[in-house]
Amino acid sequence: MLITHEGRSPSVHPTAYVAPNATLCGDVRVAADCRVLFGAVLTAEGGPVELGEGSIVMENAVLRGTRRDPLVLGRQVLVGPTSYLTGCRVEDEVFLATGSRVFNGARIGTRSEVRLNGIVHLRTVLTADSTVPIGWVAVGDPARILPPEDHEGIWEVQKELDFPGYVFGLDRPGEGRSLMPAISERFGRRLGRHNDDHQI
Fold first, then answer.
1. Are residues 172 and 179 in contact, defined by beta-carbon separation less than 8 angstroms?
2. At CA 195, angle to CA 18 and CA 5, rounded to 5?
3. What's the pTM?
């Protein structure tokens, strides 16, 4: 399904394959010899999504470009099933295994691997040839790669990356208060821009 969003439409190279139930919305650019498989969603939420030549997006993966951070895949990148990428830059020949998560402002260097259910956090930079082991978390610049049970070590770096400020433009609330009302209102307003979308 190809959808126009905010006046921009997807473009797909003639040699690429996009499955009939994949969704490409807005300024999505699919280069030569790419493959976008069943149930994948590529959506340009104010910033483009670009797939480099020969890249593959597997079943039910979600790739989201943002106004601050476009989503850019280099050449011959494989994005595994159910992976979620938002506003990140992935260089050439990277392997993102099933269930990997890569967040806003992150950069992944050439030939790196993020293995099953690995996470590359907000504004994290992985140098070329890096590996995030199964289920582990990469956080910071330069990245520290930590096991998921090391919550204190992850939080020590993560809190300075300021997820609510960077992604939603909000200050972290005080003890006993929730960010969710403000996030729901602000993010909901942004997503409401899809009201004027139309299928091509």
1. yes
2. 40
3. 0.92
Q: Which residue type sits at 159?
A: K
Between CA 80 and CA 83 the distance in angstroms is 6
Q: Is the peptide bond before 142 cis (omega within 30 degrees of 0)?
A: yes
Would the CA dihedral through 145, 150, 151, 157 be positive or negative? negative
Q: Compute how many other C-beta atoms are within 10 angstroms of the C-beta atom of residue 186.
A: 15
Number of H helices, E strands in the chain: 3, 24
Per residue in 97-133, pLDDT tens?
999 999 999 999 999 999 999 999 999 999 999 999 9
Q: In terms of C-beta distances under 8 Å and separation of at least 24 residues, what long-range contacts does 182-190 make, across chains too?
A: 190/45, 190/46
Supply the DSSP string of 33-50, one letter for each residue.
T-EE-TT-EEEEEBS-EE
Q: Could you tell me the two tokens for 135?
A: 């289920």
